[in-house]
Fold this sequence. Notes:
Helices cover 36% and strands 14% of the residues. It is an alpha/beta fold. Helix 2 (46-56) links the parallel strand 1 and strand 2.
Amino acid sequence: DGRWLVGYIPPDDTFRDLSVDYLTFLKEDSMPVVYISFGTLANLYKDQLSSLYQQVTIENGFKVILALRTEQQLRLIDCLGLSNLDELISGTPKHVKLVNFAP
Length: 103
């Protein structure tokens, strides 16, 4: 079904259904997907956030789900000289899904 797991493989009933929003993003084309999440403890510096965002927004033949906690998104807004979260989301390319939590 498209999931490649490394390490411990939990029972199938562990996975919940994805929202329509995620399914649409994943199925709108056949590009591979890179999932990036730093969890709840990692705190990236402004230069790290800026560099990461610049790299994932370059069209490289894959889609990206980038999960950054709200405070990290706010720091990214500051790094990029933007005004608010709506400006960040609307300015993010279509192949990148920027979220504060990803399943």
